[in-house]
């Protein structure tokens, strides 16, 4: 039977659940080599030689076997079964047994193995969201979380994990902000690179996605991002570049959106020029599901058509082969497409270590990783009068809102993960037919209300759902203190229109705080929000989407079982008027939810990223003179710290960090470039987490990635001669004294 016949049964009746170089100078502060077994660029080059030898043995027809795949999810009535060997999940590409090439079994997994509506009848460890991992500023934790997720993927029979979200948070209203890491390229690249290395330590492939400039969900299949090469190289592309250097992902997943009129998955600029030529990337480029516009995408750098049933046609099968047979140059390109897939499989160990479903999973150990990750990502934003940790003399506590009696909130879309038993609670957003499950507000099991009650067995702990502010406020006035859970649900396919808490939560919090000033707000959000009630509440904790152990992590922070150490990986603006675009482009003109639909060529939408260029988030605020509600890098502790003694030569920085309080804790040393020749020019150039006992001092050293001091010159990087100013920062707006150093001019190519 021909391969197209084998796969055709999976091309109908399915919907989208799937996703969606190197410099000679040592750039990264923490390189991949710091993690056991992490790949290097040399490993990828060696794997390429092996891959080419396998391609030389392929029959012509076999050269189309690895170039396209399907989504084996028969979720509609009377849908045909998936192909033989497929696992219900995001994707499947049959291998070539005679050449020792296994089936490619693909699952979504930025925060764990995707639940896919429970179709497999299994579950996975639900990790905190990407932005929570970013808030940890912890490379080692990122590696461990990736390693843990990769272990579960392998045990379930998957050898490709669609993880590694590296897009920068240009707009906090982007519905996928929660999946990504940060607004800063250094933080994003280092954290996601370590995470990818952890995944691939299990001899499976991790992607890095969505390449590139995938900054909004509104019109995501046709929005055209406008940005200069210089601005892109110094921002989003730099985040991907650092992540690839550190993690060496076997595959890169391209994006739905256009970049300067070119579709992301058919972009000569992104795929051939930047990724494969300038960065010398050796792995393969897979499409996002339903993102391939035509056969020409292969000539522009796309190596594999994923979820082909969601595209207008299957382009990378016999159509591709016929074109290659007619043109030797295109046959060479087809050979290269196969060699790139095989390079990723060989380098990561997929070829030599086949996966098999049914492997053992240490659920307890993995839950511990989820708990530590949730704890590390929690950010203490306010703590007036040291009301936290919760006072031992609080005899009565009112818990309000957030469905805290059910579980903790998670982000929606293809990244949805659930532990044993599935979701604790589901609420549909809209009736969108077969896509309804993608737009369902879902909660992880583990109720914060019960976690709080467990810790205060002698106290009166009552609960109100918060549907009516009047009864919650009346009861709040009678209690010693109040804990309000406030939720901002975000999901793939849908942007949020503003930064207010939905469904009247802001008014509810204001009414409760007026009735009882000893009010603590616990935020479960996918990104930044407004806080019109901030001055009236006693404390605020940002928990993000904390995963399956979120109830224990939140309660532990409230009761002081650990000292919060998370820092904001994105800026919380005071109003949307501070953002480069006050409104999300196209939100009113176009409806949300564009999963798997064919793009109407008449649809036009542009988003101008040249407005801010590379100056995203805290850099935009510095340029415009804005003061954030909470700045990038901000976070409080139950103790106090001092950073001082900065010394730098422009390549490294050394400084001291002291715990000046009475409790052990962990802080974040932050070094910022603040000026060049006296002109403001702000950028995070180094960071390190430091754990200290009371009164303890540690000397810290960080190395700078020289690209953060440089400008893209069109062919490489240039550090202009001049005087460069650096400062320690408690956050991006609370900076210490400037230390200057004179640097010579320098230019280089990656």
Helices, by number, come to 17
Share in helix: 10-25%
Largest sheet: 6 strands, mixed
Task: Extract low-pLDDT stretches.
Answer: 1-33
Kindly report the oligomeric state of this protein.
single chain
What structural category characterises the helix and strand content?
alpha/beta
Globular, elongated, flat, extended or rod-shaped: what is the shape? globular
Strand order of the largest sheet: 1-2-3-4-6-9
| Spatial gap, N to C terminus | 47 Å
How large, in whole angstroms, is the Cα Rg? 25 Å
Structure description:
With 750 residues, the protein is an alpha/beta fold. The chain is 24% helix and 20% strand. The chain has a six-stranded mixed sheet. It has a six-stranded mixed sheet with strand order 10-18-17-16-11-15, sandwiched between helices.
Layout: helices, strands, pairs:
Blueprint (H helix, E strand, L loop, with lengths): L2 H6 L32 H15 L35 E3 L10 E5 L21 H7 L2 H17 L4 E3 L22 H16 L4 E7 L12 E3 L2 H5 L2 H12 L3 E4 L3 E2 L2 E2 L4 H11 L5 E3 L9 H4 L18 H8 L2 H21 L14 H15 L1 E5 L12 E5 L6 E4 L14 E4 L11 E6 L2 H8 L4 E5 L4 H8 L4 E8 L16 H11 L3 E7 L13 E4 L7 H9 L47 E3 L9 H7 L16 E8 L3 E8 L5 E12 L2 E14 L4 E7 L7 E2 L4 E3 L2 E7 L10 E5 L2 E3 L2
Parallel strand pairs: 2-3, 3-4, 4-6, 5-7, 5-19, 6-9, 11-15, 11-16, 16-17, 17-18
Antiparallel strand pairs: 1-2, 7-8, 10-18, 12-14, 13-14, 20-21, 21-24, 22-23, 22-27, 25-26, 26-29, 27-28
Helix pairs in contact: 2-11, 3-12, 4-5, 4-12, 5-7, 10-11, 12-16, 13-16, 14-15
């Amino acid at each position: 039977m021909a391969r197209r016949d084998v796969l055709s049964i999976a091309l109908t009746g399915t919907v989208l659940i799937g996703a969606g170089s190197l410099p000679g100078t040592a750039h990264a502060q923490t390189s991949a080599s710091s993690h056991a077994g992490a790949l290097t660029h040399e490993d990828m080059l060696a794997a390429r030689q092996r891959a080419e030898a396998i391609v030389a043995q392929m029959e012509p027809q076999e050269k189309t076997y690895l170039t396209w795949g399907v989504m084996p999810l028969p979720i509609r009535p009377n849908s045909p079964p998936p192909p033989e060997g497929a696992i219900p999940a995001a994707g499947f590409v049959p291998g070539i047994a005679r050449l020792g090439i296994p089936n490619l079994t693909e699952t979504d997994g930025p925060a764990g193995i995707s639940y896919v509506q429970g179709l497999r009848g299994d579950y996975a460890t639900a990790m905190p969201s990407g932005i929570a991992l970013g808030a940890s500023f912890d490379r080692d934790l990122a590696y461990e979380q990736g390693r843990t997720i990769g272990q579960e993927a392998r045990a379930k029979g998957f050898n490709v994990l669609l993880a590694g979200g590296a897009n920068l948070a240009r707009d906090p209203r982007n519905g996928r902000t929660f999946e990504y890491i940060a607004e800063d390229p250094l933080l994003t690249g280092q954290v996601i690179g370590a995470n990818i290395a952890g995944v691939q330590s299990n001899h499976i492939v991790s992607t890095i996605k969505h390449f590139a400039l995938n900054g909004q969900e509104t019109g995501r299949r046709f929005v055209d991002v406008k940005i200069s090469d210089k601005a892109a190289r110094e921002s989003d592309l730099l985040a991907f570049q650092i992540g690839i250097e550190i993690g060496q992902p076997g595959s890169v997943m391209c994006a739905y959106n256009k970049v300067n009129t070119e579709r992301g998955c058919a972009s000569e600029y992104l795929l051939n020029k930047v990724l494969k030529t300038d960065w010398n990337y050796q792995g393969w480029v897979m499409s996002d599901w339903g993102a391939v516009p035509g056969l020409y995408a292969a000539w522009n750098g796309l190596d594999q058509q994923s979820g082909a049933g969601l595209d207008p046609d299957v382009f990378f099968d016999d159509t591709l082969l016929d074109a290659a047979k007619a043109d030797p140059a295109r046959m060479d390109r087809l050979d290269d497409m196969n060699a790139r897939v095989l390079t990723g499989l060989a380098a990561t160990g997929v070829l030599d270590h086949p996966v098999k479903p049914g492997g053992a999973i240490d659920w307890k150990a993995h839950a511990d990783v989820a708990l530590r990750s949730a704890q590390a990502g929690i950010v203490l934003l306010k703590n007036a009068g040291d009301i936290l940790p919760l006072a031992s003399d609080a005899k009565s506590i009112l818990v309000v809102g957030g469905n805290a009696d059910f579980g903790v909130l998670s982000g929606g879309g293809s990244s949805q993960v659930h532990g044993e038993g599935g979701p604790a609670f589901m609420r549909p957003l809209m009736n969108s037919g077969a896509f309804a499950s993608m737009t369902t507000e879902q909660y992880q099991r583990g109720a914060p209300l019960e976690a709080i009650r467990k810790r205060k067995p002698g106290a009166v702990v009552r609960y109100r759902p918060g549907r009516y502010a009047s009864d919650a406020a009346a009861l709040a006035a009678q209690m010693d203190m109040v804990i309000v859970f406030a939720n901002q649900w975000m999901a793939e396919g849908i942007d949020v229109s503003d930064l207010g808490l939905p469904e009247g939560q802001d008014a509810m919090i204001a009414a409760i705080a007026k009735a009882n000033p000893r009010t603590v707000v616990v935020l479960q959000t996918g990104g930044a929000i407004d806080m019109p009630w901030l001055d009236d509440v006693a404390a605020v904790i940002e928990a993000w989407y904390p995963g399956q152990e979120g109830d224990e992590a939140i309660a532990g922070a409230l009761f002081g079982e650990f000292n919060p150490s998370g820092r904001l990986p994105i800026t919380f603006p005071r109003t949307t008027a501070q953002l480069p675009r006050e409104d999300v482009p196209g939100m009113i003109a176009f409806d949300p939810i564009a999963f798997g639909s064919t793009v109407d060529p008449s649809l036009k939408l542009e988003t101008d990223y040249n407005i801010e260029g590379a100056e995203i988030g805290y850099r935009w605020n510095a340029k415009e003179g804005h003061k954030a509600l909470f700045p990038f890098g901000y976070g409080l502790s139950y103790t106090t710290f001092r950073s001082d003694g900065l010394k730098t030569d422009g390549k490294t920085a050394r400084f001291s960090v002291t715990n000046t309080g009475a409790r052990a804790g962990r802080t974040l040393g932050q070094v910022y470039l603040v000026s060049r020749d006296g002109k403001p020019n702000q950028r995070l150039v180094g960071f390190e987490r430091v754990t200290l006992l009371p009164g303890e001092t540690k000397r810290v050293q960080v190395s700078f990635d020289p690209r953060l001091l440089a400008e893209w010159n069109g062919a490489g990087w240039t550090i202009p001669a001049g005087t460069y100013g650096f400062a320690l920062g408690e956050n991006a707006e609370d900076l210490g004294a400037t230390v200057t150093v004179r640097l010579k001019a320098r230019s280089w190519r990656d």
